[in-house]
Design goal:
The structure holds 2 protein chains of 2 kinds. Helix content of chain A is about 70%, strand content about 0%. The two termini of chain A are about 30 Å apart. Chain B has 22 helices and 23 strands. In chain B, helix 10 packs antiparallel against helix 22, helix 14 crosses helix 17 and helix 14 runs antiparallel to helix 21. Classes of the chains: A mainly alpha, B alpha+beta.
Chain lengths: ~375, ~625
């Protein structure tokens, strides 16, 4: 489907003046992406029904979230890219202000302040920054010649560092790293020189030990230690990973059957409807189901990359590329964590995990992708 | 805003972007490959391991404890029962903070330090996810308190368990015994097979029949595979192999006769054993003081145990099989028979009793318990009826000790009776060889004089005396005493250990002597047959507790109560066709005829009329359960 569409779009690029603009394009809808997202959403609801122990209420609530998220995506897609570019500094600064607000007046649970309550409406400002940071970096780089000069690089790094630092203070290391990654992807795609990338990599290696010693909190260190040896504390810190691995592994190639997973249905799998939901899929549908889900994700990513290639401006290109790669990072970090490759950080599986907030942000991101993909050509080359 | 020196070049920008994006795509593909490889590793390569892990998570093999066999008296009165009891148990895996949980429980219900320390001991040898009991026998109020606060204590639950209950309390403590929690010592003696048998079972027989018939009563453990959820709740049983309940025991013991014997002894320390003359079945088996066996079932408290073990009256001591006493004159019928058989005496043998006896070449004076003697012409009948010591000394002096030892051995003295109870003592009847081996000394004529009167080295348990009396009563057939009559309805056949051949005239003579003890005006045991419409035959005895110095006289007033002589009486009835033989011991009771004989009488009065018409009359027997509990 993707390849056929690709050729169609290529011919479209050459004959755009002659051919009438399609309805989908006028509505700023990228049909292949929309279809993929709808398929993923349906798969998600199906897995959620099983993961919640057959509780239809979860499915109902998540369906409402999904409707809201898709509507949000359409709205976001209608707004011209230039608007985003011009308003991104304000969105960014506003986001930073809210993050400061979280540190000062935030509410939260389990020792972390992540929420802000304004007029009875609770939300996480860090969600705004998931899009705000890459947008700001892309807008910043858009005005400058590529490859970016050293000064530009430092400017971009500063843009990334401020919100990342504020979020780390909440503390929410996982989100902070993912937001930083989305900004850095934009910088990387703008043509950051390999020398600098190499130097940065070296810097990370050198600072690993000091960060372990002084930069991490006890529970964060514990999570990493648990990752390295989950059997040390089977009934304590290692419980989640031990049981998610057992769930996935016992699924085998063909799975135990829908609603038949013993690990998930008998409550051995914690957080089975949120962060660990892929273990439910893997247990009940086996490796077949996992590969199918991964394929869906790959197609979404491929479509995102295609859109970024086809973008008219540097801003759109960087933003689309960054959003797509960040999406992949979410997928990778979540699955890596559930399968015991990465430490446990609270990252949901995109579109599948139960939860409204992250879903809405995610779909807004796809809205921006659609905005990029359906932008009217004003400049010809 | 500061501007770059370079001009913006869309083509360079696009080229750079594509370049970087292609590298990123390679990275994405590589990381995807890592994920796929990971799933392959988990779901294909290590599939079996994880399958096992997930099954171990959800499937638990749980032992199902068999129901312990019940114990009935000969008339079907339940002596040992299993009753539901509620425990407070904890599954360690489900508890976050054990100390905090224990503290919380301590606020809700009574929890003693000993409960906690025993609990921690049990914790050390539990299996994963096994509920470990903390408190037993919760009251209804305690169960309610726990239930209300259940949500604050994950992993804590109230569990029902069948525990042993002895309805008649202390009445059968020394015969039926009791079960208790399996201790570390029990465990260290376990074979691998035992470990399997006791899965799921918390109790083991400690004393009495509960111990000697442990394997019979236990039954065979069953198993069930259950599916549990993460909170340990059983969702369904996947497979089940039912346990086989233990076998029920019916005893020869008669609860009613037992009660009569216990009442007759009253508050005195002592033992009563009654035996069915024709089978060796034990009809009554009393050792006093007794104790409540129910205290031990779920673990006795330190205070209760100290009270029992520190008591001067040693209630935990089973006097009937473990108490070894000098049998005194109760041996006279047996010795008389031996003397007749050996030709040392006849019906006509008469001696002069001046009240003392002297061995040739020995200055020592052996004093009869009657200072002035029993008269000029004392024959065997009189010697038995009045318990004339000089008659038997005269005979013993002419009798080889090994002959005396032989006849005593035929009646079961000096060796364990083989009763189906644990921890029996063997008593002692000396011989030449024994004295040389044990004391390194030759046999002196004076030793024979002591032995013939059941003094000196001679020791016997009340049970041995009862067996001896029963063997006399049925003219030489020595049965092994048995408490258990049937196992699961299967009759346990009487077992004859030995048949003593003796001349019928000699038996008649001994019977006549024992009859005289009870029925002649001068007999020492008249009170054993008082107001009975059948004839009783018996023999009294007195056993010295403290040796009396040569020439001194026994003065009961001057002696501490616990240093006074033990009173003994052995008897059987009816004389014409004996059915029941009884041995009575009253510690520090002084007079066999005065104190012990009336106890025996009560048993005859109860038993003989009841067995008059048929061998087993059960119609008029009623015994309300629990009436005498405690």
């Amino acid at each position: 489907m993707a390849s056929r569409d690709f050729s169609h779009r290529l011919s479209d690029a050459h004959g755009s003046l002659r051919k009438p603009v399609s309805l989908a394009r006028r509505l700023h809808i990228d049909v292949p992406l929309l279809v993929l997202l709808l398929v993923l959403a349906s798969v998600g609801l199906g897995v959620l029904f099983s993961a919640s122990g057959g509780d239809i209420n979860y499915v109902r609530r998540q369906s409402i979230f999904m409707c809201l998220a898709f509507v949000g995506m359409f709205i976001v897609a209608q707004i011209p890219l230039d608007f985003y570019r011009r308003w991104s500094p304000w969105a960014y600064l506003g986001g930073c202000a809210l993050l400061v607000g979280v540190l000062l007046f935030g509410t939260g649970a389990k020792g972390a302040q992540r929420w802000l309550e304004i007029a009875g409406f609770r939300f996480q400002p860090s969600e705004i920054m998931k899009l705000g940071v890459p947008m700001m970096v892309a807008a910043f780089l858009h005005q400058r010649a590529q490859p970016p000069s050293l000064m530009t690089v430092f400017g971009a790094l500063a843009i990334v560092a401020v919100p990342a630092a504020l979020i780390v203070r909440q503390p929410d290391l996982g989100t902070s790293i993912l937001i930083a990654a989305s900004g850095l992807f934009a910088l990387y795609l703008a043509g950051l020189s390999w020398k600098m990338i190499g130097a940065a990599g070296l810097g990370v290696l050198v600072s690993a030990w000091p960060i372990w010693q002084w930069g991490l909190r006890d529970y964060q260190r514990q999570r990493i230690l648990t990752l390295l040896n989950p059997h040390d504390d089977r009934f304590g810190a290692g419980w989640n990973i031990f049981n998610s691995k057992a769930a996935i592994g016992s699924g085998g190639v063909y799975g135990k059957g829908y609603l038949q997973g013993t690990q998930s249905q008998l409550d051995f799998l914690p957080e089975s409807h949120t962060d660990f939901i892929i273990a439910v899929l893997a247990e009940e549908w086996g490796m077949r189901g996992v590969l199918l889900l991964l394929l869906l994700y790959v197609l979404v990513i491929a479509r995102g990359i295609y859109i970024s290639f086809m973008a008219q401006h540097l801003f759109g290109r960087l933003l689309a590329g960054s959003i797509t790669l960040t999406f992949f990072v979410y997928v990778f970090v979540n699955i890596g964590m559930v399968t015991g490759l990465l430490p446990v950080v609270g990252v949901p599986l995109p579109i599948i995990s139960y939860g409204g907030t992250s879903l809405i942000t995610l779909m807004a991101g796809f809205g921006i992708l659609m905005a990029v993909g359906t932008e009217r050509r004003r400049v010809h080359f | 805003m500061p501007h770059d020196h370079h001009l913006k070049d869309p083509h360079t920008e696009q080229r750079l972007f594509r370049n970087r994006m292609l590298v990123a795509i390679v990275g994405v593909i590589a990381l995807l490959a890592v994920l796929v490889a990971r799933f392959y590793n988990l779901q294909v390569v290590n599939y079996d391991d994880y399958r096992t892990q997930s099954d171990e998570n959800r499937i638990q093999v749980r032992p199902v404890a068999p129901t312990r066999g019940l114990v009935y008296d000969r008339n079907g009165i339940l002596l040992a029962d299993n009753r539901a009891s509620f425990n407070l148990s904890i599954v360690r895996e489900r508890v976050q903070d054990l100390d905090a949980t224990l503290e919380l429980i301590g606020h809700l219900i009574r929890l003693e330090d000993s409960d906690v320390s025993k609990f921690r001991k049990r914790m050390k040898r539990r299996r994963p996810f096994e509920p470990v009991p903390l408190r037993f026998r919760l009251s209804e109020e305690e169960i309610a308190r726990i239930s209300v606060n259940q949500f604050r204590m994950p992993g804590v639950s109230v569990q029902a368990e069948l525990v042993r209950y002895y309805a008649l309390g202390d009445l059968f403590a020394h015969s039926v015994g009791y079960v208790g929690r399996i201790s570390d010592r029990d465990l260290s003696n376990f074979t691998e097979e035992d470990v399997r048998l006791y899965r799921g079972t918390n109790s083991i027989g400690k004393v009495g029949l509960e111990r000697s018939y442990e394997k019979t009563l236990l039954g065979e453990v069953g198993y069930e595979n259950v599916e549990i959820n993460a909170r340990g709740r059983v969702l369904r049983v996947l497979e089940r192999q039912d346990p086989k309940p233990g076998a029920d025991l019916t005893l020869h013991l008669d609860a009613h006769l037992q009660q009569v014997a216990s009442d007759a002894l009253g508050d005195r320390r002592g033992a009563v054993v009654a035996i069915d003359v024709n089978t060796g079945g034990v009809l009554a088996f009393v050792s006093k003081p007794s104790f409540d066996p129910n205290l031990f079932v779920t673990g006795i408290s330190f205070a209760d145990y100290r009270a029992l073990s520190d008591s001067l009256d040693v209630p935990l001591f089973n006097r009937a099989v473990q108490g070894q006493y000098p049998p005194g004159s109760t041996l006279k019928p047996l010795m008389g028979l031996g003397g007749l058989e050996a030709g040392l005496i006849t019906r006509e043998t008469k001696i002069k009793d001046p009240g003392f006896y002297k061995l040739p070449n020995d200055p020592r004076i052996y004093r009869d318990h009657v200072r002035w003697g029993h008269g000029e012409k004392v024959d065997l009948i009189q010697a038995m009826a009045q318990s004339c010591d000089v008659y038997f000394w005269d005979m013993a002096h002419r009798w080889d000790i090994d002959g005396m030892h032989d006849i005593a051995t035929h009646f079961g003295l000096g060796s364990k009776t083989g009763i189906d109870l644990p921890m029996e003592r063997s008593g002692l009847f000396p011989s030449r060889d024994w004295k040389r081996g044990a004391r390194g000394m030759p046999w002196f004529p004076g030793d024979s004089l002591n032995a013939v009167l059941g003094q000196g080295f001679v020791l016997a348990t009340p049970l041995q005396l009862a067996v001896m009396t029963a063997t006399l009563a049925n003219r030489g057939t020595h049965y092994r005493p048995q408490i258990v009559k049937t196992i699961n309805g299967a009759e346990q056949p009487p077992e004859i250990l030995h048949n003593l051949e003796a001349h019928p005239d000699n038996w008649d003579l001994v019977f006549e002597g024992m009859d005289a003890v009870v029925n002649r005006s001068y007999g020492t045991g008249k009170r054993a047959g008082k107001d009975l419409d059948f004839r009783v035959a018996g023999k009294s005895g007195t056993a010295q507790v403290v040796g009396i110095a040569q020439g001194a006289r026994y003065d009961s007033e001057a002696l501490q109560e616990r240093h006074r002589d033990h009173a003994l009486f052995v008897a059987f009835a009816p004389v014409e066709k004996p059915r029941i033989a009884v041995a009575v011991l009253v510690e520090n009771g002084e007079a066999g005829g005065g104190v012990a004989a009336p106890v025996a009488r009560e048993l005859f009065a109860e038993w003989v009329p009841r067995t008059e018409s048929a061998v087993n009359t059960t119609a008029d027997v009623s015994f309300s359960e629990g009436a005498d509990n405690g």
